[in-house]
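in:
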């Protein structure tokens, strides 16, 4: 399948280290902070550490990790459980990591999203809910419940992608067609709903989805439908050009945000300096 290892931690790469660090924090929370909190309830430092770690771990930090590495979680979980070994302690830990990754992506996230969808709009802005599940709808328009399904569609799309890639190996044309229709659906969804609260972000999402759709259409030319080497070379260079253009626009957007942020910081310190010297 193109992977040199069936170890989930190796497949996850640096994301595996992030998971290990998260698990260490959870162990510290239950094994150290909870007993200390009961042993020294008057300690302000311990109470603050307990409160801060609880707010970060359950479940904002975990959801942020899952959203960032959703595809890696699915690949590592599926590939390790399907083809992995259990002969050594490292391989057993790898299997537990794979189960953890699949539970987070395929059970925890969908349940959290469904919980958000059924909530009343004003309840979503309450501190208790937002602090725990805010990662799933921060930056989205909460006025329409359909917008809250964005990450649900985000997950279903990636699950379907993993299934198609690993199970339809002999039907490359079908892989390309399914991926193309999934991209087209998301393009229509984002264009119709504009789920993000800022128009700039909606436009970037639309642009990215459109580029991915065009690239996926190019992929059909690398199936048995187009046997000619020359035609494939031409389409390959076209794909490279589109990918490069997409990267350039996204990098430009990132630098634009950084520039505006830096400009605001400079203006703030300039005003502070003026106020200081006027004294």
């Amino acid at each position: 399948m193109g992977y040199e290892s069936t170890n989930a931690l190796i497949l996850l790469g640096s994301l595996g280290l992030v998971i290990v660090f998260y698990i260490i924090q959870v162990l510290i929370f239950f094994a150290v902070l909870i007993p200390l909190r009961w042993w020294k309830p008057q300690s302000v430092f311990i109470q603050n550490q307990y409160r801060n770690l609880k707010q970060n771990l359950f479940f904002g930090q975990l959801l942020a990790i899952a959203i960032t590495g959703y595809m890696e979680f699915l690949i590592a979980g599926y590939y390790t459980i399907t083809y992995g070994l259990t002969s050594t302690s490292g391989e057993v830990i790898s299997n537990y990591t794979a189960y953890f990754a699949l539970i987070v992506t395929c059970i925890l996230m969908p349940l959290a999203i469904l919980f958000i969808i059924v909530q009343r709009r004003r309840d979503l802005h309450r501190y208790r809910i937002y602090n725990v599940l805010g990662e799933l709808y921060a930056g989205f328009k909460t006025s329409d419940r359909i917008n809250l399904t964005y990450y649900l569609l985000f997950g279903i799309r990636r699950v379907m992608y993993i299934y198609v890639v690993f199970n339809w190996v002999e039907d490359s044309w079908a892989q390309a067609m399914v991926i193309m229709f999934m991209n087209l659906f998301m393009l229509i969804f984002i264009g119709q709903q504009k789920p993000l609260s800022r128009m700039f972000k909606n436009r970037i999402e639309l642009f990215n989805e459109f580029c991915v759709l065009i690239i996926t259409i190019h992929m059909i030319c690398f199936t048995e439908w187009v046997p000619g080497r020359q035609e494939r070379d031409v389409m390959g260079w076209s794909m490279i050009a589109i990918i490069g253009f997409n990267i350039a626009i996204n990098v430009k957007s990132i630098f634009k945000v950084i520039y505006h942020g830096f400009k605001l910081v400079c203006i703030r310190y300039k005003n502070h300096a003026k106020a200081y010297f006027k004294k």
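note: The mean pLDDT is 88.
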